[in-house]
């Protein structure tokens, strides 16, 4: 990075003040942190000390570079740390803010000042903003921490182990029959399933059922409507009190799928956006109407059982889904080897059972290369969505039970009818 370019804008090159903008940047960073600290009762450092510490970091880094004495940076940091050992200088009965927090913030300001000298102003400013937000939001963060139990923290540690320790060491290459199995991608599905389940559990614990349901549906639809349907279908079966909540999350996740396809077309091949929107918008609209009717019906009913989601510490469901994912991928590769020559539509049906995104990306790229026309692209995507919806509805019925399946069926049927109607309109327009 080359810095924010203030020196060139002010035309200070060649003058004694060429580096002054860097000190001004450090001053601003220190003021940002210092203003937040000044709000506390009798802080160790405040609106004056923080800017001075940041500019000290910039100055000592400059001197260390000019004199080839980088130890000056460490000396300055030691001086800042020494401030924490000074006596408080007052005997107030209540000093609410721990000195350690202010001391670490002061050390950070000093370090960010040093970072500014190395032409990393953007990074230093962004870090200062994040640090100020962390300091300012102490009451909210403390409230969240107090709501979490020991098993919640164990679930977070478990998820971190799955994501940041196991996933990176798995080979990310194709292997096995038809080179269809990729251990990294299969384990990524485990991470996805556990992540969706853990997000839902924590959202309900922290936000409540009504506040977290719509957000979980939107998030699940953007990440994986299949994984979301699986997780909350299982929850509805194991806890009848979560039936309404699970229905809302599943329906919203599956409705957002149509919006996601429109966004993919807009980003990858804007020329296909009009046709994709013509087919997906009717499905999106009809799905929203049926979902809203379901939500209103649920809210009008009194006496819902209490919602208590189970903590997602068990990995049996995730591992089972990963195994199923591997089997579907393997069968897809086998069927593609047998019937792939019969056209892109067979491939769309086969691959759509597992995930809509791969075939969508493939046909959009082929359209961009002028190897498919727009009608072939849209038909392929529609076939993939139908196959995927059929698979998801099977998951909902088998894992969630008959009641959940009947609650979700109208949205699946009418959104599918919307796609077919849009396809017919597209065929008329193309013809």
From TrEMBL:
The chain crosses the membrane at residues 17-35, 47-65, 71-88, 100-118, 124-141, 153-171, 186-208, 215-233, 245-269, 276-295, 315-335, 377-398, 404-426. It comes from the Bacteria. Residues 24-142 form the MgtC/SapB/SrpB/YhiD N-terminal domain. It comes from Pseudogulbenkiania subflava DSM 22618. Pfam families: DUF4010, MgtC. Signal peptide: none annotated. PANTHER family: DUF4010 DOMAIN-CONTAINING PROTEIN, MEMBRANE PROTEIN-RELATED. Residues 191-400 form the DUF4010 domain. This is Uncharacterized membrane protein, DUF4010 family. Keywords: Membrane, Transmembrane, Transmembrane helix.
